[in-house]
Amino acid sequence: NNYFLGVLEEIEKNTDLKLDEPFENNSRNAIKILFYGSDKILIEENRFGRFRRNKLKPFRGLLYLFQKQYSYIGESWLKEEYDSYRVNKKCQNCSGYRLNEKSLSIKIDGKHIGEINEFSIEKAYSWFNKLEKKLEGNDKIIALPILREINNRLKFLKDVGLEYLTLSRSSATLSGGESQRIRLASQIGSGLTGVLYVLDEPSIGLHQKDNARLLRTLFKLKELGNSVIVVEHDEEAIKSADYILDIGPEAGARGGKIVAKGTYKQIIKENNSLTANYLSGLKKINIPTKRRTIDSKRIIKFLGVETNNLKNINVNIPLGLFSCITGVSGSGKSSLVIDTIYPVLTNIINKTKHKEGVFRKVENVHFIDKVINITQSPIGRTPRSNPVTYTGTFAPIRDWFAILPEAKARGYKAGRFSFNVKGGRCEACTGDGVKKVEMHFLSDVYVMCEQCNGKRFNEETLEIKYKNKNISDVLNMSVEEAHRFFEVIPSISNKLNMLKKVGLGYIKIGQSANTLSGGEAQRIKIAKELAKKATGKTIYILDEPTTGLHFEDVNKLVSVIQELTNGGNTVIVIEHNLDILKCADWIIDLGKDGGNRGGEILCQGTPESVANIVGSYTGDYLKKVL
Fold first, then answer.
1. CB atoms < 10 A from the CB of 269, how many?
2. pLDDT interval class at 46 (50, 70, 90)
């Protein structure tokens, strides 16, 4: 960037900053001026302009310039790129309490409002109850209605299984399930009647123990005189429902019909319902006949882990096994895997600089050569990103169209069939097939391109056909249709087969990334990894991959995880789903509860050994399915 280069050269002239020296070799004073500015250095503060001596202003530092540039950014992906260079630090003036000295000087029972905000919901509930008993006379008369309102709201949060959250917890750090349960608690507190509530998979991220509490909360809403509609795959939720609608029989073009409706007893008799077949036991996810055994010499050891609420734990990750990290919500699963194990391993292997959790030592990393965190983040940020571009299947499809006789006669190369290159794509929408309409205060809306009618390519390109289908027709095929269509071309069919394996036969191969769910994006990433040649030294990390999955999809997912592990790789899964847990080789159960009462290893071992541990909530539920 020429502007910033000019800024650096100007600082170099006026300080002892040396641009040809490593950053850390420069003086503290030069670095301080570089970041925070100086009144003595004059510079133009126009991010696009050139240096004009008549418009010079005091240099206010690179951080100020970046902040200014950040405020101009409209694209969310670019904002995220900038955010990766920013960290939150506790304010030194208020010690993170957010209020000034005057506000914090007001105390009740020796605590100011900032200290009370640091309490967990459970601790706050107990503290306010004790306070009510301590008050006397006028103080009690004044405080009683306020305390009862506070305690009612705290009780609602406890009832939906959120007692481990602190009152000051930032909403940005909450999981989707936690946010949904907070909204649910506020609705119960409102006491409304005659309302229709619609919940989309409220059991996401919930341990079976917390799930029971969630169901009790939904019953409370119903008892108030409301109607509750829940989109759900959880067996307990389905069994608890008064009325069930099962849509199928399969996904995509093969779905869209009501295959069963009625009470639980009525729907399990429907043989053409996949859901009914799993609920009645006609179909089931089988427990492995033999579990893989631990090689005591091939274990990655994390010693003294203290990230967030973890209490100086020592964790052994057996290599070449399918391992599950489980425990109630807030027990420390993400702190261990996502905040510690993944960043530490990737920093060592890939020489990256991810923020790491707190730990004392890690051993035996030399046994692995790759660590992959398969998240539910989107596979792309624009309509041009889709399953075939992400998995690398689109390149051989374009190559195939380029060698067709008609394409050769016209001199078309593979790039002609790309929507990222000028020539073959529709220039009105630059190959997106849609146009973005900015709604300013509302979310952006995508409308079909009127020039190409969503086909992404110009008319000349669409004249090239294979088996009477042009490139746009192919992109509109489902994975299953495309797999049959390209059956004789291994370079294409093999990759499409991987998408079928992970249960995505119903999605269109050219479907825009921004229309895929988190679970679909995660399974596309798994399919991409499956298509690669396994080294046998890779660690795969999956965070709740069963999100949004039906029993049949979970069955397919288990097969895929076992296939990854059979190649000698290690799979670490954060999960509550009992069908996944019963198929694992090794389980590490954290708890016993969430927040401050969690962060310890309750037990680790095979599913059978965990099921026999007294005091493990996971073990109690595992007993029922083993």
1. 11
2. low
- CA 418 – CA 408 distance, rounded (Å): 16
**Burial, 516: exposed, middle or buried (Cβ in 10 Å; 0-12, 13-18, 19+)?**
buried
DSSP code for 457: B
Nearest-angstrom CA–CA distance, 420 and 297: 49
The average confidence (pLDDT) of the chain is 89
Closest CA to 571 of 560, 582, 315: 560
Note the pLDDT of residue 118.
92
Positive/negative CA dihedral, 29, 34, 36, 40: positive
Local structure of 195: helix, strand or coil? coil
CB 370 within 8 A of CB 535: yes
Closest to 294 measured CA to CA, from 319, 314, 315: 319
Strand (E) positions, 310-386?
Answer: 313-318, 322-327, 361-363, 370-374
Give the HSE-up count for residue 256: Cα atoms under 13 Å, Cβ half-sphere.
4
pLDDT at 48: 45
Alpha helices in 503-550 (DSSP H): 518-531
Beta strand 244-248 with 227-231: parallel, antiparallel or unpaired?
unpaired
Give the rounded percent of residues in the chain with a pLDDT score beyond 90.
52
State the Rg of the chain over Cα.
29
Q: What's the confidence (pLDDT) of residue 399?
A: 94
**pLDDT band at residue 483 using 50, 70 and 90 as cut-offs:** very high
Distances (CA, A) of 569 to 291, 326, 371, 522: 15, 20, 10, 18
Which of helix, strand or coil describes residue 368? coil
Predicted confidence (pLDDT) per residue in 301-327, tens digit: 999 999 988 999 999 999 999 999 999
Q: How confident is the model at residue 179 (pLDDT cuts 50, 70, 90)?
A: confident
- Identify the band that residue 206 occupies on the pLDDT scale cut at 50, 70 and 90: confident
**Cis omega (within 30 of 0) for bond into 269:** no
Nearest of 595, 439, 433 to residue 515 by alpha carbon? 433
How far is it, in rounded angstroms, from Cα 352 to Cα 36? 27
Calculate helix-pair angle for 490-501, 518-531, nearest 10 degrees. Answer: 130
The model scores a pTM over 0.85: no
Three-state secondary-structure class, residue 549: coil
Distance set, CA 441 to CA 72, 438, 447 (Å): 16, 9, 18
CA–CA separation, 500 and 483 (whole Å) = 9
Confidence of residue 47 (pLDDT cuts 50, 70, 90): very low
Q: Which of 289, 244, 303, 242 is nearest to 268 (CA)?
A: 244
Reported as a single tens digit per residue, the pLDDT across 510-522 is 998 888 888 888 8
- In order, the DSSP letters of 251-280 are SGGG--EEEEEESHHHHTT-TT-HHHHHHH
Q: What angle do CA 354, 360, 365 make, to 5 degrees?
A: 65
The residue type found at 104 is: L
